[in-house]
Amino acid sequence: MLKDIQEAIDYIKAQTITIPKVGIIMGSGLGGLSDKIDIECSFDYDDIPHFAVSTVEGHAGKLLIGKLGGVDVMAMAGRFHYYEGYSMNQVVFPIRVMKFLGIETLFLSNASGGVNPDFSIGDIMVQNDHINLFGDNPLMGPNIDELGPRFPDMSEPYSHRLIKMAFEIAENQGYKLQVGSYAGVSGPCLETPAEYQYVRNIGADAVGMSTVPEVIAARHMGIPCFAMSVITDLGVPGKIVKVTHEDVQAAAAKTEPIMTDIITQILGQLN
User: Fold this and answer.
1) Span 58-108, pLDDT tens digits
2) Among candidate residues 60, 215, 197, 59, the one with its CA nearest the CA of residue 132
3) Comparing C-alpha atoms, which of 66, 63, 61 is closest to residue 21?
4) Disulfide: which of 56, 140, 229, 254 matches 112 by Cβ 3.0-4.6 Å?
5) Domains of the chain
6) Three-state secondary-structure class, residue 133
7) Closest CA to 137 of 224, 219, 53
């Protein structure tokens, strides 16, 4: 693992001297953020040693390095999902590379199904916690001490400081934000009505197929995280309807300006 990480780092460092301060995973709801980045260099995932390749529509599959909000960032335009057939180590590999390249904070976004009856399609939920229902964990197996401790603390998976900043920005701009816990599942099928009810019963406000593995890997390495979910469908009794991937993309696209603005303003405060 460490050898693979170093080979990816060597490839990237051969083409840039920038030391990124912030890592960004531009999942659903943040695709337009790439247009705001002053890009210094761009890498196709399949050119970077040991990177997987995004196979999902709407995930560009590029690693971008540049400036956003005056901060040096490394951004993934698209992510890898467990349901694509990748191992957990492959899913979180870019996070580990980012850490060794210098990032100090990680931002993430995703599309999710809302199971909180107070949510509506198009809402943005700031994640304050998560539940791992993948049935797997990127830290399984022998611990790599150079990455982090055997039993990492997860009492603050999402930074309280960054959450507070997001809500202050939202209040100033008149944005509506929800807050809640995200249940991460393997996918790729969307949830059944009984599964929606289950994740609500165990304490989740939304359910999706990403983010949890990356955050576990990031917190293992001591990286503070901030994540936002676009509520693209509802898993609430009486409001469950058939949903397509195109429906999810369309709902996420409507939130992009708000999510992009919040991330950019937080970065400006970190600078």
Assistant:
1) 556 899 999 998 999 999 998 899 999 999 999 999 999 999 999 999 999
2) 215
3) 66
4) 229
5) 2-270 (3.40.50.1580)
6) coil
7) 219
